[in-house]
């Protein structure tokens, strides 16, 4: 069985005249926990967006689940938390369970019999991130760390096989960061979800990830760690 989730071959990318990634190659396998690190401006977020298909390479090839990324259709297998996930009006009048259920509204409108299943999946996802007691709370009343856990639960209702996260803990207090990282460990080890995480928290990744991708001057250095 092919365990490769993402395969990148000879990838190059630049903005106008500035090349930020230069002929890099790597694989991300099932159950990997990959940390992407580097200085500001080292194209960490750019690399994540390329793997999500938001940007198109200048050269090289990206495959996800064995498909060229431009041909890949089964995006329910893929979860994504961007840097600005929490940038919304704090007075937005939606509860936690409504936010999570919104990812399945298209199914609900087609098959109303799925209402019970949607509710069950919502509770299951909230339990996975230890937020079930907040299901009726307004999303705007939660702390930054709690909001990120809700957005993580929103991904889980689709049973993703890989989750990409771009600096998900900016502006989140240290205690909430620790809770979030423990949840990521659980999703990776207990649920078998592949994790790809951009963060500045190098020391935490050294303790938790099994691979580190270090970006510098358009090149990538890959370190295999003993974790996992």
Characterization of this structure:
- The structure is a single chain.
- The protein has 228 residues and is an alpha/beta fold.
- It has one domain: Rossmann fold, CATH 3.40.50.300.
- Helix content is 31%, strand content 28%.
- It contains 7 helices and 10 strands.
- It has helices spanning 44-51, 96-101, 105-110, 115-128, 144-156, 174-189, 202-208, and strands at residues 4-15, 18-29, 33-38, 59-64, 67-68, 78-81, 162-166, 194-198, 211-216, 219-224.
- It has a 6-stranded mixed sheet with strand order 6-7-8-3-9-10, sandwiched between helices. The chain has a 4-stranded antiparallel sheet with strand order 2-1-4-5, covered by helices on one side.
- Helix 5 (144-156) packs parallel to helix 6.
- The longest helix is centred in the last third of the chain and has 16 residues, at 174-189.
- The two termini are 20 Å apart.
- The relative contact order is 0.20.
- The mean pLDDT is 88.
Summarize the structure in short.
The protein is α/β, with parallel strands linked by helices and 228 residues long. The chain is 31% helix and 28% strand. The chain has 7 helices and 10 strands.
Arithmetic mean pLDDT: 88
Which ranges are low-confidence, i.e. pLDDT below 50, for 5 or more consecutive residues?
Answer: none
Q: What's the arrangement of strands in the largest beta sheet?
A: 6-7-8-3-9-10
Strand percentage lies at 25-35%
CATH class: Alpha Beta
Alpha-carbon distance between the termini? 20 Å
What series of H and E elements makes up the topology?
EEEHEEEHHHHEHEHEE
Shape by Cα distribution: globular
Give the helix level as a range of percent: 25-40%
Question: Which superfamily, in CATH terms, is the homologous superfamily?
Answer: P-loop containing nucleotide triphosphate hydrolases
- Count the beta strands: 10
CATH architecture: 3-Layer(aba) Sandwich
Characterize the largest beta sheet: strand count, sense, and whether it forms a barrel: 6 strands, mixed
Q: What is the domain total for the residues?
A: 1
Provide the CATH topology: Rossmann fold
